[in-house]
Write a structure and sequence with these properties.
200 residues; mainly alpha
């Protein structure tokens, strides 16, 4: 669900991964099994980063800060908060603006919609039309994202209750996310080496 982290790892050199990488979490089980070859590579990248994230000590620490507020849903909250904190530290990793990045993402997703399952392509088109990447640029946007996610949880919980902890420790948590994202960049390069060797 941490869309921004996943997309940022494809920017700007790896645009062919964007549709499958972004859409993976939107696909149901049947759609994941029948992804086109073009989308499947992006989906494999998505799974690799998810696996890496689940084992990273910075993410475990982020979860620990949110666990008192939302219990077992701390990892869900962490995904969304991590995107917000990455946006807040954007200039540490990128020379181009977040606005340029957003437009690049919208372009790749629009152009790549035809390799996605029809239902998912419709969802992606709707998200692009609403310019959903703006969500990560403000506390109000993040609060709305957390509230929307509440409706998808299996058991009642209010993810917005993590916001006081995030605001109180924003600098500390931001450093955790930056450490995590720096390691994600290294993981991306390690993942790409065998993929490039297969093509050659």
């Amino acid at each position: 669900m941490n869309y921004l982290v996943h997309l940022a790892l494809n920017y700007p050199e790896h645009k062919t991964l964007v549709p499958g990488n972004f859409a993976f979490d939107l696909c149901n089980a049947q759609e994941k099994r029948t992804l086109s070859a073009a989308a499947a590579q992006g989906a494999r990248f998505h799974r690799a980063i998810d696996h890496f994230s689940s084992q990273h000590p910075s993410i475990h620490e982020l979860n620990r800060h949110f666990h008192p507020s939302v219990g077992k849903y701390a990892p869900v909250a962490s995904d969304i908060i991590a995107d917000y904190l990455l946006f807040n530290n954007w200039d540490r990793f990128f020379t181009k603006s977040y606005g340029e990045f957003s437009e690049w993402c919208y372009q790749q997703l629009s152009e790549g919609a035809d390799i996605l399952p029809q239902r998912v392509a419709g969802l992606v088109s709707e998200m692009v039309s609403h310019r959903w990447l703006d969500v990560y640029t403000s506390l109000m946007g993040i609060e709305k994202a957390l509230k929307r996610t509440n409706a998808k949880l299996s058991f009642p919980a209010d993810l917005t209750t993590v916001l006081p902890a995030m605001l109180e420790k924003e600098d500390l948590l931001g450093e955790l996310v930056c450490r995590f994202y720096s390691d994600c960049i290294l993981e991306r390069e390690s993942w790409l080496i065998p993929q490039n060797e297969m093509k050659s």
